UniProtKB/TrEMBL annotation:
This is Glycosyl transferase. Residues 171-306 form the Glycosyl transferase family domain. Keywords: Transferase. GO terms for molecular function: glycosyltransferase activity. The lineage of its organism: Bacteria, Pseudomonadati, Rhodothermota, Rhodothermia, Rhodothermales. Residues 18-119 form the Glycosyltransferase subfamily 4-like N-terminal domain. It holds the Pfam family Glycos_transf_1. The keyword Transferase applies.
Length: 347
């Protein structure tokens, strides 16, 4: 099968530092190739892949100080995708709804994985209009705001099994990994750690849109002696941070579509303490690989009980549910559903 993977251009594939969507695209692309398929990847020029790379800009847009208009390269990319469309058995988009008006008018089978939140008011009318566009969710919870979408499947993310090293022992600190923004609630993570009298390491990027929030709301909290803010980190540093942590704190305050960092922690053998929002109850087995909590008091109690969680079980749970070969097989089943059979093509 010849498969096109169409990535956002904001980060490389895989990202050099923070980035969830492009990271998943990288894992999926390489696994599809490993399973014997040909893949053409549309992505930024600094991407690293065994696929046939078609680059629409030399560098990921977020890290390119000269890139002003981020939409223009995406429009050019869609033009290039459909210029080559006849070469593909299926086109797998990861750019939200940007391509819908074009894809509706083309004949090559296509699929879109929706990676973001769907509880935005503008999306209801859009998906009522484009109810013919085949889409995949990354959790069942993600679907709830948009019942009119043309859902094909839910495909949970997966990671290569050797990406992170299993750590049998922790160094006793708590970890927060991700992005500084109001919905991620790093302030709550600091409060949990403070009340539990536990050290906290925070590895997070600060987007330009969140710089004022960081300066006004979060930076003053970093004076706490138990808090170590290390900033944005790469994959090697991530493995060390997560692997040596006693637990990952995930105190989100939004309908999280998936939460890749949760399975990254589990791959290291690190339990997760997460708020009951969005996909969390789907991803985590409560009291088996961590604790799913509803408020601050429950989170603090979970920290105090974290030694009840077997780190080997966390790794085993990851291997059972969230490996990349399973993710690729799930997508291949959807591709096969969407590609017409020879009989259908002739009719």
């Amino acid at each position: 099968m010849h498969i096109a993977q169409v990535s956002p251009l904001y980060e490389s594939v895989p990202p050099k530092q923070y980035g969830g969507t492009e990271r998943v695209i990288a894992y999926l692309t390489e696994e599809l190739i490993r399973q014997g398929h040909r893949v053409t990847l549309f992505a930024s020029g600094d991407s690293e892949t065994e696929a046939d790379l078609v680059s629409m800009c030399p560098h990921s847009l977020r890290l390119d100080d000269k890139a002003v208009d981020h939409l223009a390269p995406h429009v050019l990319m869609l033009e290039e995708v459909y210029r080559r469309a006849d070469a593909f058995d299926i086109i797998h988009f990861h750019v939200d709804y940007l391509h819908y008006p074009v894809s509706r008018r083309e004949t090559t089978p296509h699929l879109t994985t929706l990676h973001g939140r769907l509880d935005l008011p503008e999306l209801g009318p859009l998906y009522r209009e484009f109810s013919d566009m085949p889409v995949v969710s990354i959790s069942d919870a993600q679907r709830s705001p948009i019942s009119t979408a043309n859902w094909q499947a839910t495909v949970y993310h997966g990671l290569p099994p050797d990406l992170f090293t299993y750590r049998e022992q922790s160094e006793g600190y708590l970890a927060f990994l991700g992005r500084i923004s109001p919905e991620k609630r790093v302030d709550t993570a600091i409060e949990i750690a403070s009340r539990a009298h536990a050290p906290l390491k925070i590895a997070a990027k600060v987007d330009p849109a969140d710089e004022a929030y960081f300066a006004n709301e979060i930076e003053p909290l970093l004076d706490n002696a138990n808090v170590d803010f290390v900033g944005e980190i790469d994959d090697i540093e991530k493995g060390d941070l997560l692997g040596h942590a006693a637990a990952l704190l995930f105190p989100i305050d939004w309908p999280e579509p998936f939460g890749l960092v949760m399975i990254e922690a589990l791959a290291c053998g690190t339990p997760v303490i997460a708020y009951r929002r969005g996909s969390v109850p789907e991803v985590l087995a409560d009291e088996r690989v961590g604790f799913v909590v509803s408020d601050l008091d429950e989170a603090v109690e979970a920290v105090q009980r974290i030694d009840e969680i077997d780190r080997h079980v966390c790794r085993q749970y990851f291997e059972e549910r969230f490996q990349v070969d399973r993710m690729a097989r799930d997508y291949l089943r959807v591709y096969e559903q969407l590609i017409p059979s020879p009989a259908q093509t002739l009719s």
